[in-house]
Amino acid sequence: MVRMAREPVIWRFRSIYKTIIRFVRNTSAGNLEWNNTLASTAQQWSNNCVFEHSNGTLGPYGENIAAGTGTYNISTALGDWAAESGDYDPSNPQYSHFTQMIWKATTQLGCAVQSCNGIFPSSYRVGFVFSAYFFLQDAQFYVCEYYPQGNVIGEFS
Questions:
Q1: Are strands 138-147 and 62-68 parallel, antiparallel or unpaired?
Q2: Which residues form the SCP domain (predicted)?
Q3: What is the pTM for the complete model shown?
């Protein structure tokens, strides 16, 4: 069973989504609807507790992932993806979590979360001044699947 309730996630996503649209006035992003199949697919991937993208192994879906410890939640994850809007340049668009969120052709969304211990790869520890405790404690691993997928080469919209 998917551990993320439908309505709160959609409400939070729509709230952040509206904020994103204000930042990117040139976009004509469509409306997103919740999809239980995508949510189940997201849960399937998050259950693996591997902090990397599925790279299409789950189906022809777009995907955003995020993880964090402590008070990190779905709003924080969505906010992190939305924060990439600051790097968005309509004259030279680059693909990102943000562009998947606003992709015009994407109409369906499903998200899930899993509590994972030790999810952060050792490469994340290099250069950080965090204690080992940070990397070893449980993290919330968020996965959102999108359909149709965005960030398609040659179809930037």
A1: antiparallel
A2: 15-154
A3: 0.78
The answer to whether 16 touches 75, Cβ cutoff 8 Å, is: yes
Contacts of 59 by beta carbon, 8 Å cutoff, 6+ apart: 41, 145
Three-state DSSP string of the chain: CCCCCHHHHHHHHHHHHHHHHHHCCCCCCCCCEECHHHHHHHHHHHCCCCCCCCCCCCCCCEEEEEEECCCCCHHHHHHHHHHHHHHCCCCCCCCCHHHHHHCCCCCEEEEEEEEEECCCCHHHCCCCCCCHHHHHCEEEEEEEEEECCCCCCCCCC
pLDDT tens digits, 30-48: 677 788 899 899 999 999 9
CB 36 within 8 A of CB 110: yes
> Mind listing the pLDDT tens digit for each residue in 10-20?
555 565 555 55
The residue extents of the domains of the chain are 9-147
